[in-house]
Amino acid sequence: MWIITNFVTLTIPVTYTDLRFELFLSDCTSCHALFHHSVLLSVRGSMQAILMPEPGRAVVTTVPDPLPRPGEALLRVRRVGLCGSDLNSFRGLNPLVSYPRIPGHEIAATVLSLPETLPAELRALAVGMDVTLSPYSSCGHCSACLAQRPNACQHNQTLGVQRDGALAERIAVPVDRLFPATLGDPPLTLEELVLVEPLTVGFHAVARARVQPSETVLILGSGGVGLGAVAAAATRGATVLAVDLSEARLTTARLAGAAHTLRFDPATLADSVRALTDGHGPSVVIEAVGTPETFCTAVDLVAFAGRVVYIGYAKQPVAYETRLFVQKELDIRGSRNALPEDFRAVIQMLSARRFPVHAAIGSIVPFAKVPETFIRWKDDPGAFTKIVIALD
Ligand SMILES: [Zn+2]
Ligand SMILES: [Zn+2]
Questions:
Q1: Residues bordering ligand 2, an ion, CB closer than 5 Å
Q2: pLDDT single digits (tens) 290-316
Q3: Nearest ligand for residue 148 CA
Q4: C-alpha radius of gyration, the chain, whole number
Q5: Which of 13, 240, 277, 292 holds its CA 20 to 30 A away from the CA of 120?
Q6: For residue 102, how far is its CA from the centre of ligand 1 (angstroms)?
């Protein structure tokens, strides 16, 4: 039994709608250790969120308001984009996710409160500004972090995957993850801000491929991620060939800068690509689908002395004709998440109005309809392009 012999202090910091009572208790009679207990009373504010209690179910529920910790900003969530990884979380096919989980990692939000000190590059940030954010975290001491590549952190925890995400009225995030709409000139709209994160993934892959203006780049897959790679390679002045199964996606890829679009047909694709590349094949192939077939197609189609960058996650093992690695002397690279410079590059591209924002967003869904949208999306994934949730 604990006997409290010394009631040291009671502090009551008030954060937003929350009251946190901290009791500092000391001197346990049995071990003489010091104790510190924090008691959160039920007066804490609450908010609505979308929770996945387990695979196959999403519900609108009430959760406690977030409490910003030191260095964190409190944000009002305005728009949240859904992508294939959210669908896989709902289906129970995302090996990285644990339940219960609030999904959401593609975010447009408005600043409600800021920490006292801001990083130098965010001095202009103010309450009321619209922002997007990087949903990744980095540990600072794994080999990727030490190599200045925190996007590939061994211990990364993405919002909505390993940590609760943004499908809630408010979130608290480290302020150094924010990118204000005003980094663009003119500033980005909410619909543009919510597209930044998915587009950065393709931008990072094009940076990993070191794409040059004179080159021809073939991109397998014109979904959200592939579309970012199309826009990034076109922004660099390269000639872009976009490949997909869907005519509608290819139309959007053309608007995003693809010079040529090709329906994915294994019987004819290689000939069509050769005809468009003087018989050489593209100097760069970026894979943004994640099937064993497209993983092999990338190596088959790329030119001799070319580069292949993989973004997709193949769910099954892939059998390769490995002599092509050697004969073509290929550079093969993986590409994961994105770096701050990729976020800034996407914001510049969007503010130059070079991207078909309205064609890329398939539907805007109100918050209350998210549970039924997940069910319809699971039942017929092909019927949906980018889903954006509006919270206001
Ligand atoms: Zn995503
Ligand atoms: Zn790390």
A1: 138-139, 142, 145, 153
A2: 999 999 999 999 999 999 999 998 889
A3: 2
A4: 24
A5: 13
A6: 14
